[in-house]
Task: inverse folding
């Protein structure tokens, strides 16, 4: 499939989608605390999405049952909200959400601290978020997908963590997943060149231990094979003449 370049008008629509998504995230963030269940987060996200008049992008996607993916501790991505999953002090929870607004998708993920974190856990969140920031800084016309991957990989591995290989970022537009794939590892100067009008979901997934993941029997929840903690940060960004424009800020 060819990479779909977006016009300025399309990027504006995607920004509207992304801004609504930020509001959903803000509503969810307010209820992340010890004692809350991941289902509590789902209820808040569903209500906010409906209030905004947006359509959840994940619910029904290949049969996924919920508005949010809620991935706790060693869960990497695609955790399913549950009334049985109670957040405890010292946990981390990755909230991934997507919306469709006026036909255009947005996709954004944040990992939150639940209460007080151990220092290494705090470091995992700081490093993963910083790796996304570095990747976004690398975005400009003429840069490559390898520049994005290398930016993530360098900071993550320098801090002694590892980059998940099995899941990658992606182009996004009138579909949630478009070409190209956007790996969180790579070599500077290699891979597809970025062009003005590309819109990418950049989403480093970072493990404390080894990079390997496995999917649980529910068919969705991906966990680290070694049981180590994992974090996930994601923004939808447009490639503009001046560099990256974050649509989900
Ligand atoms: Mg996502
Ligand atoms: Mg994504």
Result:
């Amino acid at each position: 499939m060819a990479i779909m370049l977006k016009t300025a008008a399309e990027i504006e629509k995607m920004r509207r989608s992304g801004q609504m998504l930020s509001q959903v995230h803000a509503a969810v963030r307010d209820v992340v605390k010890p004692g809350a269940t991941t289902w509590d987060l789902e209820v808040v996200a569903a209500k906010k999405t409906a209030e905004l008049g947006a359509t959840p992008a994940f619910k029904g996607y290949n049969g996924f049952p919920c508005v949010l993916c809620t991935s706790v501790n060693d869960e990497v991505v695609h955790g399913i909200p549950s009334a049985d999953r109670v957040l405890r002090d010292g946990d981390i929870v990755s909230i991934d959400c997507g919306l469709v607004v006026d036909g255009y998708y947005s996709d954004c993920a944040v990992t939150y601290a639940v209460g007080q974190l151990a220092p290494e856990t705090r470091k995992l969140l700081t490093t993963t978020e910083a790796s996304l920031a570095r990747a976004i800084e690398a975005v400009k016309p003429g840069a490559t997908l390898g520049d994005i991957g290398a930016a993530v990989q360098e900071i993550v591995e320098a801090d002694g963590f590892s980059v998940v290989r099995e899941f990658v970022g992606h182009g996004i537009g009138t579909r949630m997943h478009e070409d190209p794939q956007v790996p969180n590892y790579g070599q500077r100067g290699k891979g597809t060149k970025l062009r003005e009008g590309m819109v990418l979901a950049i989403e480093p997934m970072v493990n404390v231990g080894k990079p390997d993941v496995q999917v649980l029997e529910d068919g969705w929840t991906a966990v680290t094979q070694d049981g180590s903690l994992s974090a996930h940060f994601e923004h939808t960004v447009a490639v503009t003449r001046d560099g990256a424009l974050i649509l989900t800020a």
